[in-house]
Amino acid sequence: LQVPHTLSQPLASGESRRFTNKHSKKALKASLTLGILLGMFFVAWLPFFVTNVAQAVCGCVPSGFFDVLTWLGYCNSTMNPIIYPLFMRDFKRAMGKFLPCCRRSAEPRPSAISLSMRNSNSGPRAVTSLKNVL
């Protein structure tokens, strides 16, 4: 028996190619973001830890240099809130909901009462869908 060739097979392969391409772009972007974050972490904190070990072994590290390396590590912590919104759309959306400076003008500001009603188990509860969350 021979199975006749249908037109839906090429479409399915095209859809899977688009699906794979879309997810590979997301994976590439995620790995790029992770690489940048880890790279900045190592650039900022590795000199501190190496100097810390050298200070414990020989005591030959000037205190001013050690302070500079400590502050370099602290600067890494201040760079993270800048890096995350640049590379992560979901992070931008979440911050836009809660920070007045990042909110779009068309978005209504949630009131404290509505937030407490939403977080409590009392009162009417709206059905939460993925569209409402995002």
UniProtKB/TrEMBL annotation:
UniProt keyword Disulfide bond, yes or no: no
Record GO terms (molecular function): G protein-coupled receptor activity
Topology of this chain in the membrane: Multi-pass membrane protein
Chain ranges of the G-protein coupled receptors family 1 profile domain: 1-84
Domain of life (superkingdom): Eukaryota
Gene Ontology CC, one term: plasma membrane
GO annotation (BP), single: adenylate cyclase-activating adrenergic receptor signaling pathway
Subcellular location: Cell membrane
Transmembrane segments: 27-48, 68-87
Pfam families: 7tm_1
Keyword Transmembrane: yes
Protein name: 5HT6R protein
